[in-house]
Design goal:
single chain; 210 residues; mainly alpha; 82% helix
Length: 210
């Protein structure tokens, strides 16, 4: 078991990383503001499951093998860029087919929740930056002699709790402002900003090196 002194730097680093804007932030704010809180929770669940998968693979060494293989890393990088580019295009397309008012019925909300979960999960699983992060970040906080897998999973659980708490607060804030985001002009602007962010991240991912 880690001591408080060993956990403190991990908690600080994790909190700072969580607060840093990224594709997860853009995804959750957009889904909560436009499609509702339920949709954003589904996106968050997918994102955190992706984190859990990469951490698990890093803990047992599989992620390290992928990162060490130039071919596998390149394929993952290209897939990640395609996913982000697709999300950017979808957001831009949505901005050109905009109407005012609420957009989600119960049925549509359920469909959007599953779709959001899949997008959140795919965003992380196809992201080599998430894999490299897990490989580089967690070992720094594992004390010498501690069991690697169980300690890594323990730290990952803490990270997921912190992530979830922050993103739920963010989603609730965006959801409460849903009346503002229901305006066609505002929603169009949000979609275009999110779409531009995703396209930019896709371009950046293509140039990612290990």
């Amino acid at each position: 078991m880690l001591t408080g002194a060993q956990l403190a730097p991990f908690l600080l680093a994790t909190s700072l990383i969580t607060l840093s804007p990224g594709p997860a932030t853009a995804l959750i704010v957009r889904h909560s503001a436009i499609h509702g809180f339920r949709s954003s929770v589904a996106v968050l669940a997918g994102i955190e499951l992706g984190v859990f998968c990469w951490v698990s693979l890093a803990g047992i060494g599989v992620a390290g093998l992928v990162a060490a293989s130039p071919g596998a890393f390149t394929v993952l990088k290209i897939v990640g860029a395609i996913v982000l580019l697709w999300m950017g295009i979808q957001a831009w397309r949505a901005s050109f087919a905009m109407v005012s008012g609420p957009v989600d019925s119960e049925l549509v909300g359920t469909q959007r929740a599953w779709r959001g979960f899949g997008v959140g999960l795919l965003t992380n699983l196809a992201n080599p930056k998430a894999m490299v992060f897990c490989l580089a970040f967690f070992p720094q906080f594992i004390p010498a002699g501690a069991p690697v897998l169980s300690t890594t999973m323990f730290l990952a659980a803490i990270m997921i709790v912190i992530d979830t708490a922050w993103f739920v607060c963010l989603a609730l804030a965006a959801h409460r402002a849903k009346g503002f985001f229901a305006r066609a002009k505002v929603r169009r602007a949000l979609d275009r900003v999110a779409g531009t962010v995703f396209v930019g991240l896709a371009a950046r991912m293509v140039t990612l090196v290990r």
